Amino acid sequence: MEAVRFLVRRNAALALMVALMWPLGALLSAAVNPYYLQIIVYIGINVILAVSLNLINGITGQFSLGHAGFMAIGAYVSAAFTLFVWPSAPPAGLWVALALGGLAAAAAGLVIGIPTLRLRGDYLAIATLGFGEIIRVVIVNTDRVGGARGLFGIPVLASFASVYACAVACVVLLARLVYSPKGKALAAIREDETAAAAMGIDTTRLKIMAFIIGAFWAGVAGGLFAHFIGYIHTNSFTFLKSIEIVVMVVLGGMGSFSGAILAAAALTILPELLRFGAEYRMIVYSILLVVMMLTRPTGLLGNREITTWLSSKPSTAR
Amino acid sequence: MALLEAVDCSLSFGGLKAVSGFSLAVEPGELVGLIGPNGAGKTTVFNLITGVYRPDEGDIRLEGKRIAGLRPYQINRRGIARTFQGIRLFANMTALENVLVGYDHRSDHRLLGTVLRTRYAERQSRQLEADCLALLEMVGLREQRDTVARSLPYGLQRRLEIARALATRPKLLLLDEPAAGTNPLEKIELMEKIRWLRNDLGLAILIIEHDMKLIMQICERITVLDHGETIASGRPEDIRADPRVIEAYLGTIGE
Questions:
Q1: For residue range A282-317, what is the model confidence (pLDDT) as tens digits?
Q2: Number of A–B residue contacts, CB under 8 Å
Q3: Which chain B residues have a beta carbon less than 8 Å from that of A2?
Q4: What is the mean pLDDT of residues A131-138?
Q5: What residues make up the domain containing A22?
Q6: Residue A184 to residue B93, Cβ atoms within 8 A
Q7: Structurally, how many domains does chain A consist of?
């Protein structure tokens, strides 16, 4: 009983923050125009994607390029649930759909993680990129979920409140993990895998664990996306989307939660601000990225790589 | 029964015999030295014992149970910890965090408990932190608890690496050139610390060291490797007089 009270006390603030998203959502939808509100919701979805990828790429140091694939699984599984399995679902059915989407993505993370996490560095990146594309191609060729036409008529059950409730829960829970002793073990794998194993850490198991947790939240983000837009197409989940999420993590600073959140917000707003440039906006967007990376390299590379970059500089510059 | 027994271990890389017919027994609480010229196979022996490599032939047993073929993390959990020749700390983590990682597998905190902050998980992580601080205190690093490992002076990095290995509560500690790159004064201090560790914690220690004088002073038994083969094994005074050892280190006269 005492233990339960303790648990409630420790999680009351989190529960309150999550609950506050509903009045906040009501307030925003009254005060802000729908276009802005939509961008704000996209930011929330991208925050979940960036923070969950940060666990895999930034904290554990496993360079994954397949995050959009997990997002796609979450989107399609949850949408299939609300369309075909429980079409008359009340709004609360969203949570069942999200849980299913997240679990399906996590299961895919397990299946993909076991073979690929033996690989390191570039090889892991290429293998996860490949798996992400396989997921997309399988969906394109599955007529039951719309195939190349996309999936229409998904009930619009997600809103600002549900997206930000998930985003808050995702950030807080993942931060608790990362700042716990278990999280230190994850960071140790990033720092030196051989030394971590010599300290009794089952590196393979922990890497797969990080991968599954990251995939779960990407699946949830996909489910939210599907139920916010009401229409999904595989074009939203190409490897370009994976790269976009990686850019958020890298630009924010590998391993930094606040960095990932800020970068997710900035990179969602930026293309919208550049809309006046029509076709040229992607060029401007790219140039801005290059400039940001050149002027704020810590955001790009994180501390670890910047030290090697600095120390190798004198030897190459003659 | 010996704590660690290596029986007739051999390992080749392609055509190169890195270690051949290596045998060694370490008794509980014993301080054993492993010496030999560069490239003799000393670090390879460490890698065999800790599971980085698997012996082609031979057997390695810890307390009578076979450990050859287990993965490094499993061998560590059975009670063997090590340091590395070139320091391999978790460079961007603090001294406290480095030690905390060594403690990780001994705690049974579950993921869900950690994330939901159960009382049990919180108590446990508080206990872990207290244990880590006690360990840092022991090696004289308490003040540096929040210093990032790579900003520590070299000598302290060496000590932190030993503390991190101790955090896994080993029965046998393998030290790979712990005094390399430290000044003579630090060396003596370190050797005293190592002897003290053995006496106080009742650890068995196997140590690789280049400095003959140093190792002769602290070890009860010494094994000498050359070209992957054991050329001598015994008490320091016998090793010092062994003609094959002298030859391996100094070369033959008139060569």
A1: 787 788 778 877 877 666 445 333 333 334 433 322
A2: 115
A3: 119
A4: 94
A5: 10-238
A6: yes
A7: 1
Burial class (CB within 10 angstroms; exposed 0-12, middle 13-18, buried 19+) of A242: buried
3-class secondary-structure state, position A16 = helix
Give domain status of residue A317, yes or no. Answer: no
Residues of A with CB under 8 A from a CB of B: 2-3, 6-7, 10-11, 173, 176-177, 180-182, 184-185, 187-188, 191-192, 194-203, 209, 303-304, 307
| Residue pLDDT, tens place only, B114-123 | 888 888 888 8
Model confidence over A3-35: pLDDT tens digits?
A: 888 888 889 999 999 999 999 999 999 999 999
CATH architecture, range B4-218+228-250: 3-Layer(aba) Sandwich (3.40)
Rounded CA gap, A88 and A229, in Å? 18
Cβ contact A15:A7 at 8 Å: no
- Which 8-state DSSP code applies to residue B222? E
Only one residue has tokens 């003290």, namely B196
In a domain, A96, yes or no: yes
Q: Is A264 among the domain residues?
A: no
> Which chain B positions have a beta carbon within 8 Å of A307's beta carbon?
150
Q: pLDDT tens, A260-271?
A: 888 899 889 988
Tokens coding B195: 């002897």
* Mean of the per-residue pLDDT values of chain A: 88
Separation of alpha carbons A144 and A252, rounded Å: 39
Answer whether A237's CB lies under 8 Å from A75's CB: yes
> What six digits make up the tokens of A43?
């930011």
The DSSP element (H or E) to which B229 belongs, if any, is strand B229-234
CB contact under 8 A, B117 and A198: no
Q: Which residues of B touch A185 (CB under 8 A)?
A: 101, 104
- CB of B133 within 8 Å of any CB in chain A? no
* Residue A314 lies inside a defined structural domain of this protein: no
Every domain of chain B and the residues it spans: 4-218+228-250
Instruction: Choose from A184, A254, A301 for mutation: most chain B CBs within 10 A.
Output: A184
Q: Average pLDDT of A188-216?
A: 94
